[in-house]
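Case study 2.
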Amino acid sequence: MNTPQVSIGDVLTRTIQLYGKHLGLLIGMGAVLFVPSGLIQALGNQAGIFGSLLGSVVAAVATAVFTGAVVRVVQAEDAGHDPGSVGEIFSSVGDRIWPLIWVGIIAGLATAVGLVLLVVPGLILMTIWAVYQPVIVVEGVSLDSLSRSRELVKGNGWNVFGLIVVVFLISLAISIIAGAIGVGLGGLVGIVILSIILSILLLPIAGLIHAVLYFTLAGHDAPQATQPPPPAAPPAVPAV
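Prediction:
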């Protein structure tokens, strides 16, 4: 089977199209998750080590749920289905949250070690594991998602790395803009409010990039989203 070739421009164009089409849904999902998690994280950072740890855990769970939800939106769109409501989408990724978290911890630690030691190994891991999260959600695997991601990325390393740079710049922009504007609006409170708003607006783009990349790489191998069966028709009333 020929390896699909990834075009950075095509992935970004598709991402922008999906962002515009499902803007209300994406913002709704982000608001439900990032408003409470952002407030808890901000309060936790002011409450010592335990509070910071609690805030980090809440943020990790919120990010995992959001990541899975965005993948479901793209999966439904590619299958020609309506993604459903915010609640329905969250419900569809309920059993994938913990794999997203613990595999994410493993991938994050390995990448961090690679970056600290020699930089290049960390960048390589970031590239070959670029789509492990969509793999977990769509294909229903856990740790095997890392090897599956490597298999999918093979032959597209440089283009995938370019998309990772785009995602990194989006995340960096959130921090810089929130810091700069937040200080002018009132110090810590302003930073927290801006961070939440920018997370709701910009993190969907990063999630969409990874999801679109996965479906581009997986091609016809990616499982399609299924629609729930229609309600049963009411029994016919016998003629009198």
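The radius of gyration is 20 Å.
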